[in-house]
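Dear U.,

Please find below the material for section 3 of the report. The protein was modelled together with S-adenosylmethionine; I have listed the sequence and SMILES used, followed by the predicted complex structure.
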Amino acid sequence: MHAPSHQAHGRFVAKMFADIVPMYDGLNTVFSLGIDSLWRKRLARAVAARPGDCVLDVAAGTLKVSAVLRVMYPETKVLAMDFCRPMLEKGLAGGGLGPQHIFLPAVADALALPLADNSVHAITVAFGLRNMRPRQEALHEMFRVLKPGGKLCVLELGSTQERIMLGIYNMYLERIMPAVAKAFFRRKGAYRYLAESIAAFPPAHAVKEEMEAAGFCQVTFSRMTAGIVCLHEGMKHAPCCPGC
Ligand SMILES: C[S@@+](CC[C@H](N)C(=O)[O-])C[C@H]1O[C@@H](n2cnc3c(N)ncnc32)[C@H](O)[C@@H]1O
């Protein structure tokens, strides 16, 4: 059971994504100048799934990462979960990916995944972790469902607690994006929330510490596109896991 403020935050986030679902994919492409698809491919490559593995895409949204996983690893099962049903429905409707292609797209909260302990080989989270509260609990929950030896791969926007590209990125997020969203899509509030959630997200080294506190070992991060995006990776210890 989570504190009411965390539950209220979850409801707010799910509603906000439901509100912007028609333009979500288009805005992502516009605001990232099309690089977002390359970031997701890099995330999927980091998973390094083997035939027969089961990969869970948490905060799957419109199934962009799930779809890349399906193509990159045709012999794996991909489970896609998100607590915003309209986002999942948009993904299923839009990409030619029926339920038969994404195994079990499910409406589920990352803080209470409907999966047994030690049940998936790898987990991906793209641009979702910063929305989760409490974040530490979400990391614990993902650790719980990972099999020993399994890997968590998180893609997240760089924290504006670090000055990125001499502050140009910070200004872009805080001023330009909300203004463009308001002018063209009447959704300034949603993109202001985006800027605020990025500002509140800790720097990469602190995320590493949070992952380690949740139990992950061999935690690393790599910055992409001048630090605008960061890929975090961590393993769940297995008895045969060297170096942890
Ligand atoms: C910015 S979108 C990213 C979607 C997708 N991963 C992508 O790469 O486009 C964030 C998604 O996280 C989902 N989300 C946020 N918090 C969540 C939670 N606690 N449990 C499940 N989904 C969550 C939202 O509903 C939204 O679909």
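For the text of the report, you could mention the following: The beta strands are 54-58, 77-82, 103-107, 120-126, 146-157, 217-224, 229-235.

Regards,
Y.
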